Amino acid sequence: MKIVVQRVLSASVDVDNKTVGAVDKGFLVFFGAAKGDTKDDADRLAKKVCNLRIFEDENERINKSLGDVGGGLLVISQFTLCADCSHGNRPSFFEAMAPDDASDLYDYFCEQCKNYVEKVEKGIFGAKMEVKLVNDGPFTIVLE
Q: Which of 1, 88, 98, 134 could form a disulfide bond with 37, CB atoms 3.0-4.6 angstroms apart?
């Protein structure tokens, strides 16, 4: 499982010119499920993402989590995070989880995040999405 976390001032996702998910201050999370990933992996990473302390406190130290700042979470499925570009110029997606299983794990991950964060928004799995964001920092972290 690969997850890219971006701290944002705002983020939204549109499908067919309609906004299906949006957050103000918080995280935009890109979620990629690989073969062999489990619910235990999703549990661990949901807890890690939601408890990341990457917001500034009153002393300008990165010391606060999403919950501390009342931030939201927008989670976007992105199988391309599982790309292997080690051979040639065309990425291989052989390591990406099968779509039905990945969809289930994506939904499970989002539900687990609700245990830690009040506002969890999503894109639509498998849809062509337009993601908009205003990165804060910029601050981007990759988790596996």
A: 1
